[in-house]
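Exercise 7.
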Amino acid sequence: MPEKSKAILSLGSQTPGFPAANKILADLIHQLRSSHAGDGQMISELSAGREYIQAPKVRRDFIDELLVKPLTKLLSDAQSERIRADANEYLNWLQQKLANS
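Solution. The predicted structure, written as tokens, is:
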């Protein structure tokens, strides 16, 4: 059995709630770009994570690096309440899906 961090998960665009969650993440990335609230690295990670999570099978450790860590950092560092709210909403959805996988 693979170690948990390298576990393969079935998420993808057919996952319940995915279209709404994907829109939240797209809006969040747009907010970060327009407000210059996120650094280039964070925006790149979130953008890559947004593309990656659409695959039918994904590795848990990649999701942690590309989405969970940057979103968690945004929750503590973002000045904008809307950015924090969107990051929190998406992260809650993602953690729920990860817990059920």
